């Protein structure tokens, strides 16, 4: 059995990690922490675990938890993980960081966009960006995994199959994305109160969202050249989900059927990516509660533009599910293990 600890288990992502790990046939949960809930039982915070998972939150003693865990998941805000992880810890256990501290290879860009110092820059080169569909063969070689963000996962997967193709203008990318409110986390904030969000949709962090450089860095790596794009996120009045509508100009005409074949071939070994049939497009309701990413494509012949639309559950494929997919790969399991839930509908 894989022994797993979860640091920051009281947030939405932490709760999803517990739910998925508890049902995983090869995992034993060894420790859960929350600074604000020490000694409280887990099912007193989340009543859906009544009689199912009753462990108590404990102090965040990283050294002790590393001694009893084969893998530690860090479900923490940015700027915290880089203070907690060091070489000695990584000799004892694997670490999957659900936050942003190790996603960007350029420390300067990280500190600019996140407005905080990075406290362990020496570990950047020893970590890997854990987007499973793109880095599967490399992930198992690393002890420190940077789990991708939710917007980034959806946007990158939607564009990856064509980003290095000469027929597409990689300098023309626009990503228009929508997120459910859980993407903002569980902490209280005026902008995510029910009466502030219900019956409304808004763009936010326009031209300044922190996932922008993450999307650019990964697409640039795939394209083999620097990419700059426009990314605009929106907050929508739903609990879960990401829908990313991505636009990229075509410099020569390619049949939509041919592009769909490119997507099918690119993801032929990716069990959690589903390419929609012609005329069918992703909806968040069809991926809710699952680790799937649905992708649909349409060519606008009038403007010679490819429109690629992706949908994921932000808390699962955009966070906890992908973290467990990374864990499965690291420990040599089938990447689908513990992640076979069919999307729930209606919900």
Structural class: alpha/beta
Q: In the CATH hierarchy, what is the architecture of the largest domain at level 2?
A: 3-Layer(aba) Sandwich
* Gap between N and C termini: 32 Å
CATH topology assignment of the largest domain: Rossmann fold
Radius of gyration: 20 Å
> Quick one: CATH superfamily of the largest domain?
NAD(P)-binding Rossmann-like Domain
- Low-pLDDT segments: none
Topology:
Elements: E1 2-7, H1 12-23, E2 27-33, H2 42-45, H3 62-68, E3 71-74, H4 81-84, H5 87-92, E4 94-97, H6 107-114, E5 127-129, H7 132-139, E6 144-146, H8 150-159, E7 174-179, H9 194-197, E8 202-203, H10 212-223, E9 230-235, E10 242-249, H11 256-266, E11 273-275, E12 293-300, E13 305-312, H12 316-330
Q: How would you characterize this protein structure?
A:
By secondary structure, the protein is of the alpha/beta class. It has 2 domains: 162 residues, NAD(P)-binding Rossmann-like Domain (Rossmann fold); 162 residues, 2-Layer Sandwich (Dihydrodipicolinate Reductase, domain 2), CATH 3.30.360. The chain is 29% helix and 20% strand. Strands 8-9-7-10-13-12-11 form a 7-stranded mixed sheet. Strands 2-1-3-4-6-5 form a 6-stranded parallel sheet, with helices on both faces. Helix 1 crosses helix 12 and helix 8 runs parallel beside helix 10.
Q: Which features would summarize this protein structure in a list?
A:
347 residues, alpha/beta, Rossmann fold, Dihydrodipicolinate Reductase, domain 2, 7-stranded mixed β-sheet, 6-stranded parallel β-sheet, 12 helices, 29% helix
Short description, anyone?
The protein has 347 residues and is an alpha/beta fold. The chain is 29% helix and 20% strand. The protein has 12 helices and 13 strands.
């Amino acid at each position: 059995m894989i022994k797993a600890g979860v640091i920051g288990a009281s947030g939405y992502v932490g709760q999803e990690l517990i739910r998925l790990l508890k049902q995983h046939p090869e995992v034993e949960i060894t420790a859960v922490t929350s600074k604000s809930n020490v000694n409280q039982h887990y099912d007193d915070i989340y009543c859906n675990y009544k009689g199912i998972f009753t462990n108590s939150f404990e102090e965040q003693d990283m050294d002790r938890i590393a001694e009893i865990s084969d893998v530690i998941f860090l479900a923490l805000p940015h700027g915290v993980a880089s203070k907690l992880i060091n070489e000695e810890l990584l000799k004892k256990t694997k670490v999957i960081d659900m936050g942003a501290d190790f996603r960007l290879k350029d420390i300067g860009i990280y500190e600019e966009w996140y407005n905080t110092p990075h406290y362990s820059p020496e570990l950047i080169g020893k970590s890997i960006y854990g987007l499973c569909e793109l880095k599967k063969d490399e992930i198992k070689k690393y002890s420190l995994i940077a789990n991708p963000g939710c917007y980034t996962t959806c946007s990158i997967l939607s564009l990856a199959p064509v980003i290095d193709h000469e027929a597409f203008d990689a300098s023309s990318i626009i990503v228009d994305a929508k997120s459910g409110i859980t993407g903002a986390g569980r902490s209280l904030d005026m902008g995510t109160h029910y009466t502030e969000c219900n019956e409304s949709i808004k763009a936010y962090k326009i031209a300044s969202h922190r996932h922008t450089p993450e999307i650019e860095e990964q697409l640039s790596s795939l394209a083999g050249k620097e990419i700059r794009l426009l990314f605009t996120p929106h907050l929508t009045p739903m609990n879960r989900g990401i829908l990313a509508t991505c636009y990229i100009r075509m410099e020569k005409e390619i049949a939509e059927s041919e592009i769909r074949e490119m997507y099918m071939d690119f993801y032929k070994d990716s069990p959690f990516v589903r390419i929609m049939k012609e005329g069918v497009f992703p909806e968040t309701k069809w991926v809710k509660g699952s680790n799937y990413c649905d992708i649909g494509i349409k060519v606008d012949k009038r403007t010679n533009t490819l429109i690629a639309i992706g949908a994921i559950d932000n808390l699962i494929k955009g966070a906890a599910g992908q973290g467990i997919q990374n864990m499965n790969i690291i420990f040599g399991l089938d990447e689908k293990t513990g992640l076979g839930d069919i999307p729930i509908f209606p919900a």
